[in-house]
Please model this.
Amino acid sequence: MSKTFFFLLVVLTFFNEGLWGKTSLFGQEGTYSLLVGASASSHQFILSKTETSSQFKNKLTETGSWVLNPVIHFSHTSIHDEHYKKHTLLFFSDCLALPSVGYAFSLGKQLNKKNQFGFVLGAYILDKGKWDEVVSSDEAHYMKLSSSIGLVPLLGLELNLKIISFGESLDLYLNNFVSYVVNNHALSLKKSF
Model:
């Protein structure tokens, strides 16, 4: 029941911007985009704990403090003057190479036509049963939703930089997210429509 409710709440929020209300700062119109790429990520809570990070999959470093994961983001972005707001559905593989899904709301400054810097608030769910086998309760970075589902809150800063354009609606981006729990740097193709 709680899984279905959480998923429906995310979908409803994402597709119904009217829930957020119309403000003088942001309008209702915007663009949708699909972002597909690979991310290098690290978890701040385990950087010094090689017995934990050595169990991670897709390791970029021998200790596992950095891992490489595929990412897919589906976003709706509204831009008004120099500010943006963005709703994003997150689909990715976590450090244990398990599928994860989440939602993020971003709000910030449009640095120029393609670059953004802002604040991110959201969460993603993970397979708590598998993570409980890897991390101790002291180092767990997730909250218990059920015996098999954990919730990881996201609160941090993002910097999205366009590297090159391949056309009017296809760009190569470097997306950066920095928080207390996780740091993520993704090289991605972004298709706007």
